[in-house]
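SEQUENCE WITH STRUCTURE:
===
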Amino acid sequence: MRQELTRERLLELVKELARAAPRRRTYRLFLVGGGTAVYLGWRRASIDVDFFSDEDALFVNIQEIKERLNVNVELARPEDFVPPLEGSEDRHVFIDRVEPISLYHYDPYAQLLSKVVRGFQRDMDDAREFIGSGMVEGERFRSLVRGIRDSAYAKYPRLSRRGVENAVDGFLSDMDRASRRY
């Protein structure tokens, strides 16, 4: 069984990826899901970390690194599970530079959509943090989801526009009710 991934272990993993990365290039590495939650302190630990990069070369030694550090690593991004939101590539949040890697949080709006659609308790806890922290603005999120092209849903046969929009509206209504209680 793999060890839990804490913020310290996450940073160690990023440093190991940076050390192993082919030189004379730069890379963008994105934290997704639990990695974002752990990095920001919303959770103490995660059972794995989801990464994304456009550059497969960054992950050439990932098997050896994850075995040595005894961690679970998944290579995934929100668009593997939910339709893309317009402008996602412009909303990644820079974290730090660990030569030759620039580390980012993947678009918080795309991460939030993935969590709300999946709907597990831990995802919903993270979803509330995206809104509560101010990383995501609720009405902008709703607008981006409503702006998903109908044709984008074709790649996701288990999802429907109605189901996705209802999940988002329900989540935002719950957030609104919770904020009025305090």
About this structure: The radius of gyration is 17 Å. The longest helix spans residues 161-181. The chain has one domain: 5-181. The first strand starts at residue 5 and ends at 6.
